[in-house]
Fold this sequence. Notes:
By secondary structure, the protein is an all-alpha fold. The chain is built from nine helices and no strands. The longest helix is centred in the last third of the chain and has 24 residues, at 133-156. The relative contact order is 0.07.
Amino acid sequence: VNTSMVKKKDPVKNTGDTAYKKGDFSTAVRLWSNTHKTDDAKKIVLSSNIKKYISIGQKAFESGDYQLAIKSFDKVQTFVNVLGIHGSVNEHTFRKYLSLSYGLQGKQALADGQQKRANVCFQESLKYDPTNAEAARGVSVLNEEAEKLYKTAYMISSANTPEACRLYQQALDITQKDTDVYKKVKEHLIICKP
């Protein structure tokens, strides 16, 4: 048998198919993209997955499972990126849901006293929808808290430097880089260097 005539399978494509079957869509898409061209069959699969995961994400959102909603819509984002269909109606829908899901997670984290996590969630929410009023209110609350922490740290810095440093760091964790309080805290963190 002449083995030179046997067509070898593309190992990258096989690995992508394997990753896809295991549910590791990001890896599958990345590996498929490394081949010369994602074939039409893959595009059809990815397109059908967009509808599937939007549906899963919407149901998860409606039932209050925001983590599952985020995971589902993140998969949709991966598929949209590979297919290059930015600006579609579907993209607007899932970006809105992503923003709402992150915003509601941030609100819950804030209620639970997890300010650093709330800040991350609110920032993600605003990344997907800069007009999300709930996330913007959450950011405002965190910035006010950061300002209070900064003032307290500033007042005690000469008497209790370790505590002031802890408060400065806490303020830094819950505010955004483009705020005045962030800039002031960064200036005062000099006292915390060993």
